[in-house]
Amino acid sequence: MSKDIATPKRTQEILKKYGFSFKKSLGQNFLIDPNVLHNIVSHADLTNESAAIEIGPGIGALTEHLARKAGHVVAFEIDQRLLPVLEDTLSPYDNVEIIHSDILKVNVSEMMREKLADYKDVMVVANLPYYVTTPILIKLLMEKLPIRGMIVMMQKEVADRITAKPSTKAYGSLSIAIQYYMKAEIAMTVPKSVFIPQPNVDSAVIKLTRYETAPVSVLDEDFLFFVSRSSFAQRRKTIINNLQSQLPHGKEKKELILAALAEANIDPTRRGETLSIQEFGNLSNLLLPNFKETADL
To answer: Which pLDDT score, from 0 to 100, does residue 41 have?
Structure first.
């Protein structure tokens, strides 16, 4: 087994060898603690019959830990300068494939059909660039990939929002969007001191496990998310006020909104942050017939 990439000394040697400079615009923060990487990978429960999809491998610190556990690793790297570095650092591993691409522009389902057809167990494991964490997660969820789940590191504040429960400050439309598709829990917190360069904030690793069946049955997923976003438009406002201002022709259709809230057994003076995902699902189903056609989803 080759010596770990993710030590301060080895990382500095690699950066110096390739004259690599960090691009702030790409949110590059490399991990320099093998124990943290080992813990991240252990949460993924990989075997040699598993495949892993990584986003933003950097110089390969997490990638090599994945390669030691999984049967195959596919990693997407947007920064062309890192391709020769990865070819060098990951040369001991013949089960790693680097794709030079922006994950937001990739058809991941198609890639999985082409490259991971032999693997029934697939996990996304990544240290996500902070500036695009949410778009990446939403894209992967919306594609409804045949994966078991994700183990992803992100800014702790975003992790708190994703895993938040109703009636908490962090709970919002992002919590609902993620928790509709996956069970979300914080697996571990990660101090800023284990990165180079150090980010300004602490990080957290969240574990997302795909539901066999969604926690709530909805007639239209897009409309569910529209209703939840509308309900949080102004957090301090009541749900009736938010829905009136956000739903198309909401002021004229106030009685229809009140009727749906009554049928869903939701007090119109409650705030959006107090509603569970089940309540949002039920409410969106009841509002759908009167608002779907004109809602700007």
So the answer is: 97
pLDDT for 257 equals 94
The pLDDT of residue 2: 60
C-alpha of 292 from chain center = 27
Please give the pLDDT value at position 293: 65
pLDDT at 291: 85
Q: Identify the sign of the CA torsion 132, 229, 220, 210.
A: positive
Query: What is the pTM (predicted TM-score) of this model?
Result: 0.92
Q: What's the confidence (pLDDT) of residue 111?
A: 97
CA dist list (Å): 149 to 66, 76, 105, 296: 15, 17, 21, 30
With beta carbons less than 8 A apart as the criterion, state whether 140 and 108 touch.
Answer: yes
Q: Which residues pair with 154 in a beta bridge?
A: 204
What is the torsion angle, in degrees rounded to the nearest 10, for the CA atoms of residue 259, residue 262, residue 267 and residue 272? -70
Pairing of strands 149-155, 203-210: antiparallel
Long-range contacts of 53-56 (CB under 8 A, 24+ apart): 53/108, 53/112, 53/116, 53/122, 53/123, 53/124, 53/125, 53/126, 53/147, 54/124, 54/125, 54/126, 55/103, 55/124, 55/126, 55/128, 55/136, 56/28, 56/103, 56/126, 56/127, 56/128, 56/129
- Stretches in the chain below the pLDDT threshold 70: 1-2, 25, 293-297
Q: By CB neighbour count within 10 A (0-12 exposed, 13-18 middle, 19+ buried), where does 18 fall?
A: middle
CA distance 222 to 198: 38
Candidates 153, 127, 122; CA nearest to 52 is: 122
